[in-house]
Amino acid sequence: MQSKAPMIHADLLSKINNDVYQIGDFLPSENRLAQLYGVSRETIRKVLNELTISGLIQKLKGKGSMVIGTQRSDLPASKLMSYAEISQKADLAVQTRLLERRDAALPDFVFDSLNTDFRQAPVTYLCRLRYLDERPVIIDRNYVLKSVCPDVPAGEAEKSLFHYFEHDCHLQIAYAKRQITVETATKEDQQLLNLHSQDVVVVIRGVTSLTDARVIEFNESRHRADQFRFVDFARRERN
Amino acid sequence: MQSKAPMIHADLLSKINNDVYQIGDFLPSENRLAQLYGVSRETIRKVLNELTISGLIQKLKGKGSMVIGTQRSDLPASKLMSYAEISQKADLAVQTRLLERRDAALPDFVFDSLNTDFRQAPVTYLCRLRYLDERPVIIDRNYVLKSVCPDVPAGEAEKSLFHYFEHDCHLQIAYAKRQITVETATKEDQQLLNLHSQDVVVVIRGVTSLTDARVIEFNESRHRADQFRFVDFARRERN
DNA sequence: GAGTGGTCTAGACCACGTA
DNA sequence: ACGTGGTCTAGACCACTCC
Question: What is the pTM of this model?
């Protein structure tokens, strides 16, 4: 049983993505939408607020809510999605190869963050190579805490880690902190991604947490710089 | 006259940043906060929702709201802030030099986006070089639409463009779309940023819009790759 | 059972833009 | 004057956690 707000959200989303409401158009007013969906105005406002944050609409005081973007135009690269999920949405010819999977301790470079709580914690280490059109473009390394998720089957690792966490382990991913930097390619980067010695890679390091705020994994993602693209939508904080 | 929600937001924010509520702690319950601040629970919930989106707290059903981050720990690189504002927050020794300022038409490379509406639109072109500790690290180029902001004084350009827009022109910045890529350094990049011919730069291209959804400027920002760092917080969409 | 957050409501008052 | 979004309220019912 879906609750009302998510259903309305999904409905408006699909109407925006399918040009029922086109960019530049105004949505029906909040009162009108409340009537149409048979809910209170506050419920409509909750949904419109989410669409505003996502960058799909802009509210104009005294005028209405204008459509300013769609999901399909610029795929949500800044959202928290797994590689498998993004690929699926983008309709790309992708492939994943599991290079390594073994028990390990968290390496203590721990991504310069002060996550000292996790030093030497037992993890399942995964190293996967991502292909786009038969060409290797990303090296993904995951360090999954055994205290939260005791094991990761090799078969699942080749598909989607997130899917495994959420469906098979009943663990709900909630949020992640990530950092993007550019670094010179290591010998291993050069070999796996077919790079030259002077090339650089885009490195994304992050921590992923669950709805109960427990950390489930650390990860490092190394991208061919020429294939890297990050799209962001940001709203200004009003002070 | 500040309204209630923003005041409570600011208060909780400062208490989190000043360790009154430390990471791992639970905030007072929603009912408790409603009593403390003398407002309704929905007002409290609005504020807590904002803090959740910002990555400062995580709500645990049946338990409470746990602090999971602060602003000072990882400064908000993914927020929509001007260079001047970020520098100020981060307490960096920075400097800006205006290299060029002239009337122009929007170049038609228009950032591959389909903003065909703006072809050949008259703009004020600005090129600024940003220094960090006496070293040049960023080349900023702005194309400010004359139809929205007729002119940009040279003096203001050396300070903060956003400050000029908002305080002197009474234009309210609302949101921006940006794209991050990595490209090989041009001759000009090499000269201005002291790079070698094989080096790369991180390029951020974007469009900035106002609260009334009008575009005010396009921009391109070219960063020394070794100085570039982008921090992001993302929440998982619940489907 | 008591307390927590999640959802939704019906209504109020305001500031803003259009006409 | 009217309709729009912005803000806030007081209260209801639910699902969840903890004791």
Answer: 0.90
